[in-house]
Amino acid sequence: MPYRAPVNEFRFLFDHVVDLASVTAEERFAEATPDTVEAILTEAGRMCEEVIAPTNRAGDTHPARLENGVVRTSPGFDSAYAALAEGGWVAVSADPEYGGMGLPVALTTAVNDMIASANLAFQLNPMLTQGQIEALEHHASDELRELYLPKLISGEWTGTMNLTEPQAGSDVGALRTKAVPNGDGTYAISGQKIYITWGDHDLTPNICHLVLARLPDAAPGTKGISLFMVPKYLPKDDGTPGDFNNVRTVSLEEKLGIHGSPTAVLEYEDSKGWLVGPENGGMKAMFTMMNNARLGVGAQGIGAAEGAYQHALAYAMDRKQGKSAVENATGSIVDHADVRRMLAAMKADIFAARAIALSCAVALDRGRASGEADWQARAALLTPIAKSFGTDVGMRVADEGIQVHGGMGFVEETGAAQYLRDVRVTAIYEGTNGIQAMDLVARKMADGGEAAFSLLDEVEGFAETARETMPELAAPVWEAAETLREAVEWLVAQGDLNDRFAGSSAFLKGFARVLGGYYHLRAAIAEPGGARERLARFYITRMLPEHVGLLAHARAGAKDLYALTPDDLAA
Amino acid sequence: MPYRAPVNEFRFLFDHVVDLASVTAEERFAEATPDTVEAILTEAGRMCEEVIAPTNRAGDTHPARLENGVVRTSPGFDSAYAALAEGGWVAVSADPEYGGMGLPVALTTAVNDMIASANLAFQLNPMLTQGQIEALEHHASDELRELYLPKLISGEWTGTMNLTEPQAGSDVGALRTKAVPNGDGTYAISGQKIYITWGDHDLTPNICHLVLARLPDAAPGTKGISLFMVPKYLPKDDGTPGDFNNVRTVSLEEKLGIHGSPTAVLEYEDSKGWLVGPENGGMKAMFTMMNNARLGVGAQGIGAAEGAYQHALAYAMDRKQGKSAVENATGSIVDHADVRRMLAAMKADIFAARAIALSCAVALDRGRASGEADWQARAALLTPIAKSFGTDVGMRVADEGIQVHGGMGFVEETGAAQYLRDVRVTAIYEGTNGIQAMDLVARKMADGGEAAFSLLDEVEGFAETARETMPELAAPVWEAAETLREAVEWLVAQGDLNDRFAGSSAFLKGFARVLGGYYHLRAAIAEPGGARERLARFYITRMLPEHVGLLAHARAGAKDLYALTPDDLAA
């Protein structure tokens, strides 16, 4: 069941749902003409279909291996990577000064989504490089930028992020890796980092590590963290890789999924590093990288969902089992109400999650192009939702994809289970989905809810107009937005953050449910009477009502939760 | 992190929530005195903790293998099986006339739950044997009963169910395996069966297959199916295994989970079989087996959830990461609101699912002991809910268990991921959860909703009384029951079954949510002011409200769903 890139879907979303035209109207993105957008989507889609998707199973069945200190990647990944680099697909949004295309993040998000559908384990490689490029563009010295950016953007070298240590996961501030000044402007980096995605591999002659570490006199916690560029091989004067920089791969993790992506434990021992950003300013630089990466991970979830959906739909259309008395019966299990319900819910959720992610990307692009604080705040608000909901949808759709397959879904040969195993990690890395929810109700509501209310104004305004032509769909969306508004009002009134945190995951899910209703409504209005209106009706009637329970949970507060003591939990 | 059998939890549920005393008051179960119940739970719990749980990881990492036509089971499974058989734990409820203990199914359900926590792959073995015993007790001739039951009940031999063929999964009526009379009262069975759980192994000297097949002149569909006992080795006159009966293991499936459970493709070629029940009466006999097995699978889901919960709680209590300003802080991640929320939701859901499963078992026991149609109808109503909700909870809890572990959850070494991989199949086999939901809204509502209304009367009656002492908890339960009542009324009024099927999965989940509220309320009333009241408050405030969205979905009907055509889904 080959992957088919949903190029038309992206075009529709750009044109009718997330208003890409408002981005390309900005001078900065003037080159992103409709023809360019079309060409990018089509060409990237073709590469995903023809070159990358065929490597997906091999990545799962032949994991990356550590052999005598060298990481060997899965069969076929080398030529897939060559095609990716050659086509310029590593960094679609990177700075043209260093060889990037300078296109909107909205386009990068679409391209990443397609690559993730084709092979999630593989897609992590360019995604990490993208984050590194972003961090260097914003925080590195001219010298570092000139040396590294062209090689990263072209795909000649790849990049990694090194945050986690055994005792420092979600709590980055607890990290211990040391950085001692060498006296020549460089630093000696020593320590162990874990969970380093694509931390080592044989696809490129060098690998560039961005490493968080502490200077000898650094303050404890996140205020004493600095960021360093530590290449695996030290670049010679001509820019080619020279001496080994003492970055050793200790081991690779044996994981539930993304077997094709080597997850390394890396040991640094007096490895030479160059400061990126100011001393003790590492967290800020890292957040540049992480915010972008969070949207990227959301797109991964959506891409995995798309792959799982296409896989399940193809199976269902082909599988004959029992009979159901329906008009225009296909004779396949798609005739059964519960199977059709699963497929429709999968498709409706993918649409909602993709619209949220692309709206986030559009806000990011507009914020960057215009410098307007409102758009930056919108992007900041939508980032945790895009990450968390996108990955939740990835897991839910992959799980339902298994269910559509029945017994075949549990047999690895079918490939349905791989989607679930692969996508599961996306709810964990780049800040767990719980961390995203905390970010949403605390930092992203530190404005007193202003960014959220502004978005809800947009939703309600659209629903009011839509009510004239599609009252049955518009009214529930408007009402859901009101319920969400009340939840936001309740949240921002809570002085004790734990009262917000207690229901934060439910709040984020409820927020996404409501936004999904809004974007489905936009789609229905854009193509009245068609498939999109029918899908919107399905979503608004059957899935949107979930927001009621979620937003009730969101407002339950911390008291009853903490009343449940650890002893109670262990009883 | 060793498994700890929740013996006190079962005792509490039996005494205060599901009224086991009403079962043991029946003469048939007079031997199930409180002391016996206590001894059974304690001894079974000890075996699970000390003998079975230690084999769980080995089953995953060293799957059963097919070597030269012989299936080799995972390391340690042989001695675990020996302990199981020796303790008489294969069939706690089996007929004492053939060596069983004759205890209530409620106790079997508790024992199965514990074995499933300890090792789900292993537990499938006795679960299948239990189903076979049940079918033989009800439908086999005296000769077959006398020959097979003692050996199955003692665990000397094991039993399997053979339904599925490549073209006949959920649609059992499509099966093609042939049964040709040999002229001596036996039949020659030929055909291929797939997904045969524990279809072959080296734990016992014989394996007894119950096989669905068609006589030469049989009607098409389910009316032309007969059931046969086909042993792997033909019993000699002294009852010991003799000649090989041409049951060949073609292959074992490579599965997402339960690696320790060999899932076989079996090839029958003129294998000798004995009819169980009348000719063409196979479906009825198989349903005896399946109904029981459905409750058993529900218990599997709950058992897996319990294992995953204990695993996650132990990890969370030990893991230090970040700080949270709470009273009586532990210093571990349990202090974080969202982690505590996950753990509380896991525990609350396990309680709800277990109460539903045990209520179903109690109804089954009372129906059997008294012959009262009301109890039989109650058991029939609760069976699909117990199966589907129990396994949904299994998946949800295992999934949240991974999330509690953060990055460690994605690394196989931790063991958290195994729970999810193992439990995933329980939502598929013994009738997918979608099939359960269809059964609930069609066959189980063919009484016009009578059994459901009777249960809701019980719920509302209890909530009315409870309102006097715990109005905050009782009122939402009463209101939820009313909303559910309205949904049942709507469902039974639908003449077109597809209108029921369209929202059947949501209906089942909503039904379970409401019942969960009822059982939590019972627990709170039984121990006011304690941990159980606090957990009930958590569930009723934060999880019960989900029923609103679910029951709205349940009543959406088929029209809008089928308006979404296969072309729409592929667009």
Automatic annotation (TrEMBL), chains A, B:
UniProt key word Transferase: no
Domain Acyl-CoA dehydrogenase/oxidase N-terminal, residue spans: 38-156
Keywords: FAD, Flavoprotein, Oxidoreductase
Top EC category: oxidoreductase
Domain Acyl-CoA oxidase/dehydrogenase middle intervals: 161-270
Coiled-coil annotated spans: none
One function term, GO molecular function aspect: flavin adenine dinucleotide binding
Domain Acyl-CoA dehydrogenase/oxidase C-terminal: 280-443
EC numbers, comma separated: 1.3.99.41
Cofactor: FAD
Reaction catalyzed: 3-(methylsulfanyl)propanoyl-CoA + oxidized [electron-transfer flavoprotein] + H(+) = 3-(methylsulfanyl)acryloyl-CoA + reduced [electron-transfer flavoprotein]
Domain Acetyl-CoA dehydrogenase-like C-terminal: 455-564
Role noted for this protein: Involved in the assimilation of dimethylsulphoniopropionate (DMSP), an important compound in the fixation of carbon in marine phytoplankton, by mediating the conversion of 3-(methylthio)propanoyl-CoA (MMPA-CoA) to 3-(methylthio)acryloyl-CoA (MTA-CoA).
Similarity comment: Belongs to the acyl-CoA dehydrogenase family.
Protein name, per record: 3-methylmercaptopropionyl-CoA dehydrogenase
Species the sequence originates in: Roseivivax halodurans JCM 10272
